[in-house]
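Re: the 469-residue chain
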Amino acid sequence: MEGWLKESGAVGLDALELANFPVIGRGIRTLRRFKEGERILTIPSDILWTVEHAYDDSLLGPALRSARPPLSVDDTLATYILFVRSRESGYDGLRSHLAALPKSYSSSIFFTEDELEVCAGTSLYTITKRQGRCIEDDYRALVVRVLGQYRDLFPLDKFTIEDYKWALCTVWSRAMDFVLLDGKPIRLLAPFADMLNHSSEVRQCHAYDLLSGNLSVLAGKDYEPGDQVFIHYGPIPNSRLLRLYGFVIPGNPNDNYELVLETHPMAPFFEQKRKLWVSAGLDSTSTISLTLTDPLPKNVLRYLRIQRLDESDLAVIALQRIDPTHEKMSDSNEVEVLRFLIESFCGLLNIFGTQLEKLEEQLAEGVYSSGGNAWAAAHVSLGEQRVLRMARKRAEDMLAAVESGNGNERGSLSAPARCANCEKVSVQLMTCGRCKAVMYCGRTCQVAHYKEHKAKCQSTASKNRSQMK
C-alpha cells in the first residue's frame, strides 16, 4: 500500500510506519520527532474513497446512477468498497488498502445476544437492536435496486449481508467528515491515514483542503521517534464509540444518556404547546443529551414545563405574553415536572439488566475478559447509569428546594391571575381599590366576596398607608 501511495503523490510516509501496539492493536508509529501542529501526512484527493469517485468509475458508476431512489452516502461507499474488493484484476492500489484493513470488527452489531445483554437498558442496546433490523432491510433493498440488477458486477457470494455489514463498519469507523465551500458535506476514507487511532489527549488534527481536495494530518501534540501518532475523533461517549468504532474508554468523561421527550399530537392543547416548544428552540419530540457535566440540562425542564401547562397557565402566558424559556413557570408546575422526572429516571434505571454496583463488582473481579465485547458493553452501561443517577439526584435536590420554599424564584411565572371569589381566569380583572391585593372578574364577585375579604382588606390597606408615610 505504501508504494502505491507514494507513486500517487502521498507525502510524509517515509517518517511513518504501520505497527502493532499493546491493547490498541494496529496503528501508526512515527520514525522522527514532530512538533505540535507540524504536517505529518498528506493523502492526495485522487486516491480518496468518496461518493464522487464511486460515481466516476466507468464500471461502477452507471450501476450506482441507475438506483432509484439514489443510494445513501454510506451505502454508496460500502458498495464501492465491496466492488473493489471483489475485483480479481485492476484497482491494485485500492485493493492493497483494503487488504490492510481488519478482517472483522468489534462494533456492537457483531455482538452475540449474551454480549449485548450486558448493556440491556442502554441507548446502545436499543439502537443496536434497531440498527440490526435496519441493516437487514437496507441490504434487501440494495439487492433489489442495484446488486441484483448487475450480477456480473456484483456476484452475490461476495456481496452477502455479512460482507455488507463489514463494509458499513469500515465506513463508520474510518470515514472523516468535512464541509465544502458550498456548504455541502463530504464523507471520505483516506488510505493509511485511516489507520490512526483515537486519543482524547491530542487536539483535532486532520484537515481537508477545500481547494485541492487533499487530506492532511497534523501533529496533535509533540511526538518523539517511536511514539504512536493519534488523531482526535471529538468528545464521543462510549455508547457511540462502541457502536461505530468498536472500542470504549473506561471512565469516559464524555459519557451521556440520550433522553427522548415526546408528546402525542392528540394530547390536550398540543398546538399551543407546540408553538411554545418551537419558540424555546425545541420540538414536540426532542432528544436531549444528559452528560456527566450537565446531567439535567435546562432544555429538559423547559420541555416538561411546557408539556405540563394546563388551560389556565396557557391563558396567562397568552395574556401576559410571557417567554416560555423562563427558569420556572410556577411552584406547582415545577413540583409536577420534578416528580415526573424523578419517577422517570427511577424507571429508566430499573430497566438496566445489571445495576451499577453489580457491574463494578463484576469488572473488578474479572468476570468479563478485559477488552472483550461484554467488558466493553459493561462500560457503556456503567457510564449511562452514572449519568442517570446524577440526573435523578439533581432533580431530587431541586424538588427539595422548591418544596422547602428555597427554590430560585428568578424568572418564575406569577401564579395565574384569578378572581378571588369564583377563581376563574379572566382577561378583564379589576383590582380591589382599597387594598390593591386581590382581583375580581366583576362587581358582583367583589360584593359577594366582601364579607370574607373585609378584615384582610382593612389590615392590608392600613399597612400600605403606613409604608407610604
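The chain has a mean pLDDT of 90.
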